[in-house]
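User: Sequence recovery, please. Input:
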């Protein structure tokens, strides 16, 4: 009884400390709403502050944390290599679960941990759908999981599908990089246009307007 109480006390303290930890996003949204209410004042200030706090809370929670974004991008970069390695291991005669575990040991990064969970689940007798669900959230991994499920259900060879998938993923990355480069070129032009527009108005339109008004008046 005493040992159970001693063991449960730190867990209770950790739980209460977690509940006492302030929500940084909610705090920032509340401060933003308070600033709006102070600036506007009155009933409109209260309504505007409440609306601003709500919109800030929703908007800030939709922003992806930098660590999560870096992890997601690294998983997407490693996925084609993982597919190639899986195909090579299966062509060498290794079963799917051993191939996945071997690739997980060969890779270094967040995708390795996900693949290790897939391999352990398959090795322990888990279903393919349950095992490959560990890759949920990795860009492009849904195609790998679909190919693995089709192979498990129909008995079709998986190595060829994985090789084609790796090529498709690399082609998609190249296309996305080209589109990003074109979009960056367009975005670079916008600030230049915003800088030249006031000069054009002041140097080109204002003298004409002043001259016309001078003739009219």
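Assistant: Recovered sequence (217 residues):
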């Amino acid at each position: 009884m005493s040992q159970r109480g001693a063991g449960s006390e730190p867990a209770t303290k950790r739980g209460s400390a977690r509940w006492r930890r302030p929500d940084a996003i909610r705090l920032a949204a509340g401060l933003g709403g308070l600033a709006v209410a102070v600036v506007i004042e009155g009933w409109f200030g209260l309504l505007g502050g409440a609306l601003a706090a709500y919109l800030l809370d929703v908007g800030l929670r939709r922003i992806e944390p930098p660590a999560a974004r870096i992890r997601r991008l690294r998983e997407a970069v490693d996925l084609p290599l993982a597919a190639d390695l899986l195909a090579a291991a299966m062509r060498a005669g290794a079963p799917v679960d051993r191939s996945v575990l071997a690739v997980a040991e060969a890779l270094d990064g967040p995708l390795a941990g996900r693949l290790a969970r897939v391999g352990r689940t398959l090795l322990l007798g888990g279903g393919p759908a349950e095992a490959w669900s560990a890759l949920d959230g990795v860009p492009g991994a849904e195609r790998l999981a679909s190919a693995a499920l089709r192979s498990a259900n129909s008995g079709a060879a998986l190595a060829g599908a994985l090789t084609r998938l790796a090529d498709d993923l690399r082609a998609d990355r190249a296309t996305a990089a080209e589109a990003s480069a074109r979009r960056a070129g367009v975005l670079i032009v916008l600030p230049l246009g915003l800088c030249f527009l006031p000069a054009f108005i002041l140097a080109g339109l204002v003298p004409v307007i002043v001259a016309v008004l001078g003739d009219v008046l």
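Confidence is low (pLDDT under 50) at residues 1-19.
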